[in-house]
Amino acid sequence: MRRTMMGGALVAVAAVVAALSVPMAANAAPAEKTIPDSAPGWLSHGKKTGAPSASAAVQARVYLSPNGGLAALAAAATAVSTPRSGSYHHFLSPAAFHARYDATSSTVDAVSAWLTGAGMSVAAVEPHGRYIDITGNVAAATKAFGVSMANYTHDGLSVQAPTGPLQAPDSVAGAVLAVSGLDTTPETNVPHTQKPSPPSDGFRNATPCSQWYGSETQTNTPTPDGTTLPLFNGAALAFAPCGYTGPQLRGAYEAGAASGANGRGVTVAIVDAYASPTIESDANRYATDTGDSAFAPGQFTQSLPGSFTRVNTGQRQCDASGWYGEQTLDVEAVHAMAPAAGIRYYASKSCYDTDFLDTFARINDEAKVSVVSNSWGDAGDNVRPSTALAYEAAFLQGAMEGISYVFSTGDNGDEATALGSPQTDFPASDPYVTGVGGTSTEITQAGVVGETGWQTSKYSLAKGASDWSLVTDFLYGGGGGYSSNFPEPTYQTDAGIVSPNGGRALPDVSMDADPTTGMLVGQTQSFTGTAAYDTYRIGGTSLAAPLFAGMTAIKAQASGGGLGLLNQLIYKNHTGFQDVTGAGVDAGDIRVDFANGLDASGGYLYSVRTFNGAATSLTVGPGWDSSTGWGSARAGWLAPAP
After folding, report:
1. pLDDT for res 200
2. Are residues 175 and 214 in the same domain?
3. Are 163 and 7 in contact, with CB atoms under 8 Å apart?
4. Which of 72, 205, 264, 584 is most buried (CB neighbours < 10 A)?
């Protein structure tokens, strides 16, 4: 799903148009400013289908800039997160943050007066002045924001939107951070998980599969239906792992960690849309079945909204049940890496950006967590600038309180296959979060014996065929590359990273994400209409982010508290990460799937999923690279922050 310029509530250009044909009078309208980047980004390819009625309804949200401005807040957040800074780790409580950075009551009153003076109504003011919700009609919005409205079609959607950039009176323009709602294009997010989508709702792994990487191969294990599997480019391959468990992942990544390094005393927030009704029982059963401990009383908590909305309705559906697998993976992966850490699940009431932003406000204002793991986002650089600014304000408040935000970088590689040109995904591309990319990871009882960047080509074996046939050069892969929205931050230029377009480089770090070498999870699913618990292998950078978040909880434990912006630490000293060069890894694995996703009654499907075989602009090599960043975390990352 593409992002497009967020419909805003910030333009007052009607008076400017009038002024072009009427001499200035003594009581002329006050000067106005164009809100930068406020026109819908899709206008160049959208098709205008007519004008809406002047009485057509408009709902919008005007986000207010933090007191002193976003740039000043960013500078302060960077300082409290940077070693040897005079304010290093001098974090604020939520109360102290709000006292210093909330928009003032006079600012709220001035913006409200501008909007109501144009005929809009103030429906609500966020308690800390983060935003003002307004309602009205097209006529009032046109007067308030100085831009005409039109009906459009674009990207398969029918929307109402402004015809150009928005403006605001000069006296309040600086107080407006962002606007949403005038453009009714839905801004939605999707989970970054990769699980097969069979005809049934549920899914089960087929066998053979390897308990440890390489333990079952085509030369020592027969296929269940007697199919003879040919060599792949002359080489015998292993069957894909059945799915790594918590003890396997912990042993691979945290070998050599200090005694008691388990996250005790630290809480990790997990953010997704909606909430699985069986999450705690599923996570407890999974842990005990795979050799770990269930949650202690109070170790797992949830913060849920009063109700959930936009469930399978509207032009872009959220599909609540589709988020349950994401939540399951996130909770079980964090618990696997930091078994004693608290986990607090924060549910967004829908998959829309405005609801995720409200969820981040809950997290920051509660200040109960040190790390926030997010395994979702939207594809490409076409993010609305207004949306990005609102998110950035949330990330910076978190940093000022010692909270670290971690995001998965997406599962479409460099996005060229999906979107036509190399792009990075948002929110991972924001410079004030840590973007976690993906690797294909070979784990044996000796630990990680091979890693490369996750970029997969797929080959299949047709019934009766004697060789593998290429299905697609690029099936999926970890996100990375260079943003066209955000300039390269200082921490990257200081580290010697050269961005070809001058944009923020991704990923920062990486962890296992390839579905072929993914994690085994346990979840209650619907199997032909009957709910039952079962396990399956899952991957995506949705796995990488919580794996890293769990390890970061252990670093926070060792450091005595939260760390703020992690990239200030990662780029200063990345010795805690294993450089991923791709050397010595296998060509790929053989994957066996039930044709119906459930059982052998429908037969079997055989495929080869390659490791780093796809042709994309992302590369793997020594040092930082655009596929794996600085590499994957090891015990060195668990040491106390300086």
Report:
1. 46
2. no
3. no
4. 205
- Reply yes or no: is the peptide bond before residue 427 cis, omega within 30 of 0: yes
Q: What is the pLDDT of residues 599-624, one digit of tens each?
A: 999 999 999 999 977 889 999 999 99
Give the C-alpha separation, 361 to 102, whole Å: 12
In-domain check, residue 92:
no
- Would residue 6 count as lying in a domain? no
pTM: 0.93
Exposure on the CB side of residue 480, measured as CA atoms within 13 A:
29
- Check whether residue 227 and residue 169 sit in a common domain: no
Query: Please, what is the end-to-end C-alpha distance for the chain in angstroms?
Result: 41
- Residue 567, judged by CB atoms within 10 A of its CB (0-12, 13-18, 19+), counts as buried
241 and 387 fall within a common domain: yes
User: Is there a domain that residue 1 lies in?
Assistant: no
Tell me how far CA of residue 13 lies from CA of 19, 33, 174, 386, 463, in angstroms: 10, 9, 16, 19, 66
Phi first, then psi, for residue 122 (nearest 5°) are -85, 115
Residues 6+ apart with CB under 8 A from 117: none
| The pLDDT value given to residue 272 | 97
Q: Residue 330: which residues within 8 A CB-CB, separation 6 or more?
A: 270, 272, 373, 375, 542, 545, 546
Question: Pseudo-torsion of CA 124, 125, 131, 133, nearest 10°?
Answer: 20
With a CB cutoff of 8 Å and minimum separation 6, the contacts of 622 are 579, 581
Whole-angstrom distance, CA of residue 300 vs CA of residue 298: 5
**Would you say residue 356 lies in a domain?**
yes
How many CB atoms are located within 10 Å of the residue 608 CB? 27
Side chain identity at 65, as an amino acid letter? S
pLDDT tens, residue by residue, 228-266: 999 999 999 999 999 999 999 999 999 999 999 999 999
Structural tokens at position 392 = 């950035």
pLDDT value, residue 319: 84
Q: What is the pLDDT of residue 435?
A: 98
Give the CA distances from residue 102 to residues 56, 112, 484, in Å, rounded to whole numbers and listed in that order: 33, 16, 30
Supply 350's token pair: 């829908």
Q: Where are the alpha helices (DSSP H) in 163-306?
A: 170-173, 246-253, 279-289
Residue 31's contacts (CB-CB under 8 Å, 6 or more residues apart) are: 169, 170
**Listed residue (336, 370, 357) closest to 561, CA to CA:** 370
Round the CA-based radius of gyration of the chain to a whole number and report it: 25
Sheet of 157-162: strand order equals: 47-50, 149-154, 157-162
- Token readout for 241 is 């792992």
Q: Single out the residue in 185, 218, 233 at which a domain terminates.
A: 185
| Rounded CA separation 511/252 (Å) | 11
**Segments forming the whole domain that contains residue 320:** 191-638
What the block records as the tokens of 316 is 């872009």
Kindly give the pairing relationship between strand 434-444 and strand 509-512. parallel
Rounded to whole angstroms, the Cα distance separating 579 from 510 reads 10
Indicate which CATH number applies to the domain containing 581.
3.40.50.200
Strands 157-162 and 519-527: unpaired
Q: Taking every pair of C-alpha atoms in the chain, what is the biggest distance, in angstroms? A: 91
171-174 contacts, C-beta under 8 A, 24 or more apart = 171/30, 171/110, 171/114, 172/107, 172/110, 172/111, 172/114, 173/10, 173/32, 173/33, 173/35, 174/65, 174/69
Helix (H) or strand (E) run with residue 632 in it:
strand 632-633
For the chain, what is the domain count? 2
